[in-house]
Amino acid sequence: MFYHILKVQQAKMLGDPTIIFQIFIQPIIFTLLFGYLYQSSGKSDAALLAVFIGVAQMTMWQVLLYAGGIIVRHEFNRERTIFYSLLSQTDLFGIWAKRLFFCILLSTPSFVISIVTGITVFQISLGMTDFIYIVIGILLYSAALYAIGLPIVLLLFLTIHGGKIIQTVTYPIFLLSGMIVSVDYFPPFIKGIAYLFPITWSTHWIQDVFIHNRVDWMFLMYTLLISILYGLFARVIYQFIMNKIRVRGEINL
C-alpha cells in the first residue's frame, strides 16, 4: 500500500504541468529577465554567469518544495491511519532519502537550462575551466540542497502541519543562503546564522569563483561537513517522530 502510494505520486510529479513549467519554462524567463537587467547595469560576464546560477538555484529549490508537497497531498491524508501503522512497523528513513534524491534529480535540468540559456543569449565566452567549475557548482549545490532538504522534507512528510513548516522555515533559509542577496551584506549576527546552512557555503563558493575569480576549496570541505551534520540531524528527527508514533499511534507536531 505504502509503496504503491509513493509510485503513484512519483508518476504525478513527472506529469504535473506546474513542475514541467518550473523545470523547463521558468528558468528561461527569469534568466532572460535578470540577464537583461544586470547587463544594462554594466555587469561583467562573470557576474552575469553567477546571476544565471542563482536563478537556477531558485528554480531547483521551488521544484524540490513543490514535488515534496505532491507526495503528501491526498493519499497520505486519506490513509493516515494505515500510513501511521506502516511507519510504526518499518524503518522508512532510506525510502524518504530516495524520494528526496528523486526530487533533486527532477530539479537538476532547470540548472542546466538556465546556464545554457544565459550563455547562448548573452554570448558569454566559457572556457573549459569555467565549465568544470559550473559542474562542481551544480554537484555542490545539489548535495547541499539534499542535506538541508532531508530534515525539512522529513518534517513535511511525517507531520500533519507539514505545509506550515515549509512556509515558515524554508523561505527564510532561501533568503539567508545568499541566492538573492549576498551574505556579505548581512549584519554579523544574521551572517552567522546564514552559515549554519550548507547551501550558503555552496552559494558563496559559486560567487567567489565567478564574481571574485577566487577558488577556495575549503568551502567545499565545509559544505560537505555541514551536509553530513544535517543528515545526522535528519536521522534524529526521524527517530523522534517514530518514537512518538509507536507510543501514541499518531503524531501531531
From TrEMBL:
Q: Name a GO CC annotation attached to this entry.
A: ATP-binding cassette (ABC) transporter complex
Q: Which residues cross the membrane?
A: 20-38, 50-72, 100-125, 131-157, 169-197, 217-238
User: To which species is this protein native?
Assistant: Fictibacillus aquaticus
Which UniProt keywords are given for this protein, alphabetically ordered?
A: Membrane, Transmembrane, Transmembrane helix
Provide the topology term for how it sits in the membrane: Multi-pass membrane protein
Query: Per the record's keyword annotation, is Signal included, yes or no?
Result: no
Does the UniProt entry include the keyword Transmembrane helix?
yes
The upper taxonomy is: Bacteria, Bacillati, Bacillota, Bacilli, Bacillales
PANTHER family documented for this protein: ABC-TYPE MULTIDRUG TRANSPORT SYSTEM, PERMEASE COMPONENT (PTHR43229:SF6), NODULATION PROTEIN J (PTHR43229)
Highest taxon of source: Bacteria
Entry protein name: ABC-2 type transporter transmembrane domain-containing protein
Give the UniProt subcellular location, in the record's own words: Membrane
Where does the ABC-2 type transporter transmembrane domain start and stop, copy by copy? 3-209
- Main location per the UniProt record: membrane
UniProt GO MF annotations: ABC-type transporter activity
